Amino acid sequence: MTTTTQSLHTALSARVTGRVVTGAAPGTCFQTGTAHRSEVTVAAGGPADVAAVLDVADRHGAPVTVHASGHGLRVPAAGGVLLDTSAMCGVGVDPATASARVGAGATWADVAAAAAPHGLRAPSGSAPSVGVAGYLSGGGLGLAVRSDGWAADHVRSIEVVDRDGVREVTGGEVFTRLRGTGPRSGEVVTAVTIGLLPADPLTGGGLVTVLGPADEPGDPAPLHAWASWTAGLPDAVTSGVSVVPYPDLPFLPPHLRGRRVLRVGVTVTGTTAEADRWLAPLRAAVGWDDDTVGPLDPVDSARVYAEPEFPHAYLGDCVLVDGLDPAALDRVATRTGPMAVTGIRHLGGAAGRAPRVPDSVRGRDAAYLVNALAPFGDGAVDPATARTEVTRILHPFTATGTHPAFRFGPA
Ligand SMILES: Cc1cc2nc3c(=O)[nH]c(=O)nc-3n(C[C@H](O)[C@H](O)[C@H](O)COP(=O)(O)OP(=O)(O)OC[C@H]3O[C@@H](n4cnc5c(N)ncnc54)[C@H](O)[C@@H]3O)c2cc1C
User: Fold this and answer.
1) Residues of the chain where predicted confidence (pLDDT) is lower than 50
2) Of 82, 122, 280, 377, which residue is the least packed, with the fewest Cβ within 10 Å?
3) What pLDDT sits at residue 51?
4) pLDDT at 410
5) What is the predicted pLDDT for the residue at 48?
6) Contact predicate 117/100, CB 8 Å
7) Distance in Å, CA 408 to ligand 1 centroid
8) What is the set of domains in the chain, with CATH numbers?
9) 385, exposed or middle or buried, with CB in 10 Å at 0-12, 13-18, 19+?
10) Which atom of ligand 1 sits closest to the CA of residue 308?
11) Over 368-389, what HEC string results?
């Protein structure tokens, strides 16, 4: 242990209630493509711990890097203090105000579990293991974003700690920036009060079809069918599509191995009968191999997009678009090359309306968000090839902007 590390460790141990350890020791880290290299890690127990960490680090001239779940890890700690928020994971639901006070280290799974007994749900996204604070700082594109609006629209107040101490913000520049753009260096969100939504009725699931072998150009027709279907849907229907060329690996289910698979994830804020009515044209247009759309329990929301839940190394980027160029869609279905996932989320509806309290969310005027994600390492391609593949997928789309939430991996 160097003298600086020892001195940081001693000073922090004297000031905080949370665990202080030497080196980088985050509780969990979903992104394995890069790693923190801090001198010390503090599992902060609350805002007082966070204020103490900022003060001690300041006195030592040490940088502070904040870590929650690691889903959005891009710039790892290089020395200094790793401030792990995962111990601040309390969730308290107030049914009277249909809201939850959520610790910054909580995941959406924590919020969903706490809200469910009250018949409430959160404006959460595709992966329940994503952290609440990181998700909200990008705006939060939820499963029912066309019905609910962005998750940031539901935030009522934010507890934030900086060099000046702990404060609760409900308006003004900081409140606007924290909902859509994110905290500045030296600002740490420690808790959020967020409005919850009535859980019933909710319908959702996935429609799956195989486009062909993974190493051959796939049939673009189902992708075009989804794109056409999204025109003219009511706000109650939110969907996204993914195209995944699965490698032929033994740990994958036999029906996916070596196949190019298209999945439409659908969430309808309505009954199954209503969802069936809206889905009828899409169901008729494609010969689906699997259809799991039915009553959706918000605690089971991962089944809409069925994304991998194990930590891995990935790079990704995204573009916002006004429309889906048919040639760009063809390219998504027919491209061959290294394994990379293309996802398209349908925006508009409530996602396009101005929030009651101004925020800095990007994408309100976009019709779709297109993202590409390429795994690397562990038998997959090297990072440079993964980055090139992501660029190749997004390049044919006419971008009007980008979105901070869907930019992944080492910067
Ligand atoms: C599989 C997967 C699915 C996803 N699905 C969606 C989706 O449906 N909708 C959507 O909008 N986004 C989605 N995302 C993107 C996700 O919202 C972002 O990656 C988000 O940044 C993750 O936040 P985190 O806290 O979990 O991750 P972390 O990597 O721990 O944190 C992300 C960033 O936020 C900072 N940060 C975290 N907590 C704090 C805090 N308390 N104070 C200050 N800074 C903090 C960290 O320093 C880091 O820079 C998804 C990501 C993945 C990997």
Assistant:
1) none
2) 280
3) 98
4) 87
5) 98
6) no
7) 10
8) 3-84 (3.30.43.10), 91-198 (3.30.465.10), 203-406 (3.40.462.20)
9) middle
10) 1
11) EEEEEEEECCCCCCCHHHHHHH
